[in-house]
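Here is this case:
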Amino acid sequence: MSDEIQERAGVPVLVCDPAGPPVATAQDALDLIGAAFLGAEVVAVPVERLDARFFTLGTRLAGEIMQKFVNYRLRLAVVGDISGHLAESSALRALVRESGRTSPAGHVWFVPDLDGLDARLRALATK
C-alpha cells in the first residue's frame, strides 16, 4: 500500500502507509501536507512513520510538525499505540489529554487505529 486518499466517515483522508518514508523533519511533514492538498482534509500518520523524537517533546519535533498542520488548516491524526511513549513522558500524556479535550474540532488527534479515526470523524460530522 502506498499513501492514498480514502473517504472515511464521509471525509477525505490521506492514509499513510506504515512502511512509507519516516516523518523525521518539518520538511517531511510539508511533503505529506503537499500530498494532502490533492483533496484530503485529514492526514492519518501511523506511529511507525514518526521518528522517535516526535514523542520526546523536548526535541520540539512534535511541535514543529503539528504547527505545520495547523498553519495549513489540516488535521493530523497520529494512528497507533503510543502507550510506551506515554508511560515515559508526563508532558506527552498532557499533550494527548489536551488534544482529546479540543476534539473533535482540534487539529491534532491521537487515535488507536483507523476505526478510532472513523469514530472521531463521525463525531465531527455531528457537531
Q: What stands out?
A: Strands lie at 4-8, 11-15, 42-46, 75-79, 108-111.
